[in-house]
Write a structure and sequence with these properties.
The chain has 2 helices and no strands. The protein is mainly alpha-helical and 72 residues long. It has one domain. Helix 1 runs antiparallel to helix 2.
Length: 72
């Protein structure tokens, strides 16, 4: 039973650390986009937006492909 509790606690700590890293990344990107907006660097905003959209599209495409091949 102690191993199960230890594994669960380690999993929760790992999830919390991942959430902190992701939130810091989102905060940094939002700050960069705000700075680009204020300085009227629309190219930077376009590149960041396109990168985010591409990442979301690839993530969705992978999910659709995994569903169609009955892997998930």
């Amino acid at each position: 039973m102690d191993d199960l509790v230890l594994a669960g606690a380690a999993g929760i700590i790992g999830l919390f650390m991942a959430a902190v890293v992701l939130l810091y990344g989102a905060y940094s990107i939002a700050g960069l986009m705000y700075a680009a907006l204020v300085s009227r660097e629309y190219g930077v905003m376009l590149i960041i937006t396109a990168t985010i959209l591409a990442a979301v599209s690839f993530y969705m495409a992978a999910g659709i492909w995994l569903r169609s091949t009955d892997r998930i």
